[in-house]
Design the sequence.
């Protein structure tokens, strides 16, 4: 039996990253191709690299009832939730369906590990210092538990942590819960904040660039790590017939290749993207734009450029936007899903920022600069450590006819 | 909601006290059980990977290997969900110790072992599985929340799904704070619309969690390890009948009933 994705209305969405707070800041930065990367001013020990840091996270205060969850990651989550009327839209959905009929599915790779790191830097007699002696922030579920409390969610709450595909896979889980009538709506998204584990961890793997990352450049030297928070609200199309944008397909697969490098043949990546298109009832020629994973690591970009050249007709436009935002890891899926939705809504292809000399392996599909162009169908790729792949397909409501 | 119906085709269990699901049956029957080797065999891994893998991965893969063998299915086509309440606390403790002292000395291998989906990565690589794999967490409700995720995947996509839920004992300041003091991993191979295996009906409920009485050892383990929340369901499967209510989140639970065998 062929599995299909239930088309869902994307009725609210928001993103906060180094490019700014909310949709308008992102549209503005995309229009100007203005990068949010800056020299590393975050880590407690020096590391010569560039980062995508969100301004003002330190000054955010969580409402008093949520004090046990206070940490950088949850402050960033709260900052993100307060953009684009997202809290209002969630409240409306909760009132419409009932708190138990709304699910919360969030992706993160490191949750609030930065607070655990800080605790180890400030140990007090071998124990966490008093202000960080709070179990709520030293677990992978810290983000989802906080957001569930802040949004008064009564339905299923799950953290998905599959490294850099985390906040793309949440769309697939949400779609299944709605299709199986476990819930009527789902809040999906993800938050990852800067921390030493990922900065020095990726540095140990020799994957961190000393300069701003340059996805698909011939001389790319690795990733620039960023932080971000993003959220979306998914509902049934018959409940929201006027919603202009839809999620049409979610594809998932595993590489079965290596813990920290992608399969150079891209077999797993191709399975995920074909899965997404099959479920959407679309073929490759109907994809107008792909927001690529494009991390600026040697191996990901080589694999992905070959995948595009091998599978898509010349009319499909592709780009990575990580040169602007940095690689936001567990939040990359939702950041790029929102950028894809903005591109669909506004009718433009975002340019592949940061490139000086394009890798000769890149085909004519690549949009090196912004291109005004009406888009009907656009997809987003997310590939993570452990060979974990997810692809999402979005479309205008009028382009979402199933065969 | 409409209830989800799945069959349990395979069951795996490992803790320092229980070598497998049969050992739990013996414990429930009042028999004496024999403690397994302290380092799980994790049969699916190659000798090289077994050496490199941390304890958290060995416990998860051991439970997964048992369940997959019992199911008789080919692992390469079974989707999988690897859940854990706390992830690999030993690796997190190592990372935080090194980051506090000499961050540039971080081991690249221990960093890639630190991701929450390390067990899913090791498993899919070892079994050449290109099916979807996930890594989940639901705090103390990790087992129930991930059982719902796995059952929804099985029913929505009409495919077999393996759920693995495991936690290991913490160490250092993090271990002291969290208080997960023993290892336990379980695995279930779930399939919809098949005729073999034990049939379960799952439905969300706002009722508080409840289960039939369990031996005092099981109750102790449930206090020591979030993944031991699987024990009420595993005991039900061992008895071949019954029902239980498992936490899915702070406010939602899953009512699991054994259906009549057909």
Sequence:
């Amino acid at each position: 039996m062929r599995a299909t994705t239930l088309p869902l209305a994307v009725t609210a969405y928001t993103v906060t990253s180094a490019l700014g707070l909310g949709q308008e800041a992102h549209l503005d930065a995309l229009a100007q191709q203005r990068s949010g990367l800056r020299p590393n001013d975050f880590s407690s020990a020096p590391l010569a690299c560039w980062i995508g840091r969100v301004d003002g996270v330190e000054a955010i205060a969580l409402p008093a009832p949520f004090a046990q969850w206070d940490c950088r990651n949850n402050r960033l989550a709260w900052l993100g939730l307060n953009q684009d009327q997202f809290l209002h839209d969630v409240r409306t959905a909760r009132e419409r369906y009932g708190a138990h009929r709304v699910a919360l599915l969030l992706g993160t790779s490191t949750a609030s590990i930065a607070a655990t790191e800080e605790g180890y830097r400030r140990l007090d007699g071998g124990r966490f210092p008093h202000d960080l002696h709070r179990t709520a922030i030293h677990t992978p579920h810290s983000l989802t538990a906080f957001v569930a409390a802040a949004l008064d969610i009564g339905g299923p709450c799950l953290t998905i942590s599959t490294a850099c595909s985390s906040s793309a896979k949440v769309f697939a889980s949400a779609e299944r819960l709605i299709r199986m009538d476990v819930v009527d709506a789902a809040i999906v998204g993800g938050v990852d904040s800067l921390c030493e584990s990922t900065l020095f961890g990726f540095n140990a793997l020799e994957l961190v660039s000393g300069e701003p990352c340059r996805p698909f450049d011939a001389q790319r030297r690795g990733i620039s790590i960023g932080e971000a928070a993003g959220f979306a609200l998914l509902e049934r199309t018959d409940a929201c017939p006027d919603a202009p944008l839809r999620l049409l397909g979610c594809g998932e697969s595993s590489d079965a290749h290596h813990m920290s490098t992608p399969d150079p043949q891209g077999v797993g990546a191709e399975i995920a993207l074909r899965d997404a298109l099959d479920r959407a009832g679309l073929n490759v020629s109907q994809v107008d734009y792909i927001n690529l994973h494009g991390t600026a690591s040697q191996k990901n970009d080589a694999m992905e450029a070959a995948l595009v050249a091998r599978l898509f007709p010349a009319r499909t436009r592709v780009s990575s936007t990580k040169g602007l935002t940095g690689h936001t890891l567990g939040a990359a899926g939702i950041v790029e899903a929102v950028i894809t939705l903005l591109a669909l809504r506004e009718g433009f292809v975002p340019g592949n920022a940061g490139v000086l000399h394009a890798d000769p392996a890149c085909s004519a599909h690549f949009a090196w600069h912004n291109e005004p162009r009406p888009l009907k169908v656009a997809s987003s790729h997310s590939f993570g450590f452990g060979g974990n792949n997810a692809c999402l397909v979005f479309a205008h409501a009028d382009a979402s006819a199933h065969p | 909601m409409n209830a989800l119906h799945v069959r349990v085709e395979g069951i795996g269990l490992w803790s320092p006290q229980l070598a497998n699901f049969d050992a739990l049956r013996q414990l429930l029957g009042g028999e004496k059980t024999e403690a397994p080797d302290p380092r799980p065999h994790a049969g699916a891994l190659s000798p090289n990977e077994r050496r490199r893998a941390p304890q958290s991965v060995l416990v998860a893969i051991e439970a997964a290997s048992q369940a997959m063998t019992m199911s008789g299915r080919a692992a390469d086509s079974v989707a999988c969900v690897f859940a854990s309440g706390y992830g690999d606390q030993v690796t997190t403790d190592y990372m935080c110790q090194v980051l506090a002292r000499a961050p540039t000395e971080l081991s690249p291998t221990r960093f890639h072992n630190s991701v929450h989906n390390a067990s899913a990565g090791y498993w899919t690589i070892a079994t050449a599985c290109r099916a979807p794999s996930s890594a989940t967490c639901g705090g103390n409700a990790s087992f129930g929340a991930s059982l719902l995720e796995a059952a929804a995947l099985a029913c929505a996509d009409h495919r077999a799904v393996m759920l693995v839920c495991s936690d290991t004992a913490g160490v250092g300041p993090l271990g002291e704070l969290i208080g997960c003091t023993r290892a336990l991993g379980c695995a279930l191979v779930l399939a919809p619309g098949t005729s073999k295996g034990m049939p379960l009906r799952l439905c969300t409920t706002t009722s508080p969690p409840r289960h039939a009485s369990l031996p005092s050892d099981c109750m102790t383990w449930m206090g020591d390890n979030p993944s031991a929340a699987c024990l009420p369901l595993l005991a039900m499967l061992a008895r071949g009948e019954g029902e239980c209510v498992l936490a899915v989140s702070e406010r939602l639970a899953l009512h699991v009933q054994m259906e009549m065998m057909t």
Remarks:
- The first strand of chain B starts at residue 4 and ends at 14.
